[in-house]
Specification:
Layout lengths: L5 E9 L6 H9 L6 E6 L5 E4 L10 H16 L13 E5 L15 H8 L8 E5 L4 H15 L5 E8 L3 H9 L16 E9 L7 E11 L13 H14 L8 E4 L5 H14 L9 E2 L2 H4 L6 H14 L7 E7 L4 E10 L3
Parallel strand pairs: 4-5, 4-6, 9-10, 9-11
Antiparallel strand pairs: 1-7, 1-8, 2-3, 6-7, 8-12, 11-12
Helix pairs in contact: 1-9, 2-3, 6-7
């Protein structure tokens, strides 16, 4: 690898199919789905289906975001003494600016509400990353830079999001992007939260590393009339591979944020054609959103948590994993993950 790697030490995950990382990842491995009716109807009068996180109390809006995030953080830090939590800087990924129905206060109030839910004081040092689905990649890039300056540092990367508010659903429905009985080319909305504990690599076996990070910009976004060529995603993938000192043929399988729309699957196929130069007999494409729904900014942590589980439980297709993520506005990100095989 050509750049400093980041070790992913632990994960917490809250989704519609599990309130912990082991439960969610087991359900996703088994292709379990937990869609349910929302309180909202589509233009045909049918109830909109969504992946709702089932909590004991009927939390809604920003309060539910805070509760889900706190649950993921506490799971992620379960092996860290509570008195040390305050010394771990936090990166919080939330929905991108301008997304329809974005919760008010996620930039300035959500972090305080998350802290109020935690059983131990969290660090005052924090950064808000309002970049939607690519936010986790931006957080990893920021963490890598910070760890180069402070080698002993640990960092907490958190992401939380929900697409279940009516302003968001109404906008996607108007654009004919929701999966319904009359529209197969759509996604099912969801919500979720996740957390990753990051550190410098220890050199031990059984460790998942982020070895490469890349970004790109797709001019032919999903709302564009331009022909899709996959340029932005191809650039992100090539940059991540170069960052890790690898080529596409070295990757064993892919995990992406694709949630069901043909546009994103076509883009993934185009990017693969542009980056794979050696024939592979198989190259699996995993997409956890088929079980959790589209969970926005939390998608990246869901992907990484699933990669950790697959490697630890030995059902991964290999040690080198390609990840890619994309926002509707055209921003693209890619990661290379590498598992240090346990003895």
């Amino acid at each position: 690898m050509t750049a400093a790697a980041i070790a992913i030490c632990n994960a917490g995950l809250v989704t519609s199919v599990g309130l912990s990382a082991p439960a969610s990842c087991a359900a996703i491995r088994a292709k379990v789905s937990n869609a349910s009716q929302t309180r909202f109807a589509d233009s045909s009068g049918n109830w909109i289906m969504a992946h709702q996180v089932p909590l004991q109390e009927s939390w809604r809006g920003r309060a539910k975001l805070a509760r889900m995030a706190a649950m993921a953080i506490e799971e992620c830090l379960r092996d860290v003494p509570p008195e040390e939590w305050g010394g771990i800087p936090m990166l919080l990924c939330v929905a991108e600016q301008g997304r329809p129905g974005r919760q008010a206060g996620v930039d300035d109030l959500l972090l305080q509400e998350i802290r109020a839910q935690l059983t131990a004081p969290a660090a005052e040092r924090h950064t808000i990353i309002a970049n939607g689905r690519i936010g986790v990649a931006i957080g990893l890039a920021q963490a890598r830079k910070h760890m180069q300056e402070e080698p002993a540092c640990r960092m907490l990367l958190v992401a939380v999001d929900s697409l279940l508010g009516w302003p968001t659903l109404e906008d996607y429905q108007r654009k004919n992007r929701l999966l319904t009985a009359s529209n197969s080319n759509g996604f099912m909305p969801g919500e979720g939260a996740g957390a990753l504990l990051l550190a410098r690599p220890s050199g031990k076996t059984g460790e998942l590393l982020c070895t490469g990070i890349g970004f790109g910009q797709e001019e032919a976004s999903i709302d564009s009339t331009e022909p899709l060529r996959g340029d932005g995603l191809s650039q992100a993938v090539k940059t991540a591979l170069a960052d890790a000192g690898l080529a596409m043929q070295h990757m064993h399988f892919r995990i992406t944020d694709n949630a069901g729309e043909q546009y994103y699957f076509k883009e993934a196929a185009l990017a693969l054609q542009r980056t794979l130069r050696v024939r592979k007999a198989d190259f699996d494409h995993w997409h956890p959103a088929e079980c959790t729904g589209e969970i926005g900014a939390a998608a990246g942590i869901s992907i990484i948590a699933n990669a950790m589980a697959a490697c630890a439980k030995r059902y991964a297709k290999g040690a080198n994993i390609l990840v890619h993520l994309g926002n509707d506005s055209g921003e693209r990100a890619s990661l290379t993950l590498q598992y240090r095989e346990a003895a």
